[in-house]
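Open question from group meeting: does this chain pack into something compact, or does most of it stay loose? Before anyone orders reagents, we agreed to write out a predicted structure and look at it together. Recording both the input and the output here so the notebook holds the full record.
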Amino acid sequence: MELKSLLRRCASKDTQSEVKHEETESELFSKYYHEWKGKEHSNVSYKAIPKFYHKIPKEEDTLLRKLLEESRTLFLSRRNRQLIENDDLKALWRLLNTHHSPPIIAGEEKMINYDDFLKVISLACPNVKLYLSPIVFGKLLKRDPYGRVSIADLFQYVMRKVWLNQSRIGLSLYDLTGQGYLREHDLGSYILDMGLSPVMALEKSFHSFYQCTAVRKFFFFLDPLCKGRVRIQDILASGFLDEISELRGDVMPKNLLANWFSAPSALRVYGQYLNLDRDHNGMLNRKELADYGTGMLTQVFLERVFQECNTYGGEMDYKTYLDFVLALENRQEPQALHYLFRILDINGKGYLDTFCLNYFFRGIQEQMALHGQEEVSFENIKDEIFDMVKPADPTKITLQDLLNCGQGDTIVSLLIDLNGFWSHENREALSPDSGSDAAEV
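Structure tokens returned:
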């Protein structure tokens, strides 16, 4: 009996001590939380720090959304007033020509030293001064023995900077949340509102397809994680807006088909899609996609495309087709290699081994047999591929290995396209120098 009572007393004491411990812990947590937060002993510096995070108003908060839009519009209009107008640019060019620095060498461009550069700044209008600083002069300074910079380089820098700021403000007007990125609909509206005359001349029914075609290039290259949005900063740095700007001038580029954003290029891509769609249901199945290009893509590769890409009932829509086209037409780009590597990595392990290479090369061998060509041994191709890549692990090829070797596009073509395979095998006969060398011999 005494043992039982002793055990009960010990148990009750342990329970009471645990409760007291929890209460003490809670009190201490509350005490230090309020102290560090600054409610009881607030630090003066805490009050001086402004609030830097504001939640985005919800869609149902109409008044707050309207306030956000108005404040952003006022901010952008204020930034727009800081831009340089054409008359100011002309005045800047006259100042640079007037204050160029000696010595003047016949046949060479005019230069300006730092002292004359400061004179130009003092005479320029306030908006121009924002673009001219000692840092800019230092960036443009080359190996001139007199410490001068080219006035043409300086003027081009200012013009480029003005154009970038104009583009940033224009893109920001479509950023409804003010978070620095655009969604597909926002970017599509921006492109259509640019009013490219060759595009506007087309039928209105085609405008939505042109919009989808143009926007897809931005998202294929600038949204690798498929978040459905691209940063404005990335759009400006990509150079795609330069391609669009070429189409706004009076003089059109000679090769419009090489510009993805031109009307002829968009019509070409959409026309190919319609020609492939033999059952006219607006989608492409695997058999229809097999006729893409020269029809030399292997069945194994096409099967993997439909396994990895977004399809609807086993068929591909126009947006998925655009990704497919962009990947095959830009195989040398890292984003295209990432797209194609995902298809080649049948095991999803992040690398290609001998099994993966053999799996896809069997498709090339099947194409050869179909066209009555002599079969090529896989062992020879495997050794050649590993020699070209020189992977960190001699038994595995990662995406980074493909990017580092600089021949990722060639290696992918060897595995998925019979034409690409034969182009590589006969590269010496097809090279333009081979004919001249033979003639000399």
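Observations to bring back to the group:
The first helix runs from residue 2 to 37.
DSSP finds 25 helices and six strands in the chain.
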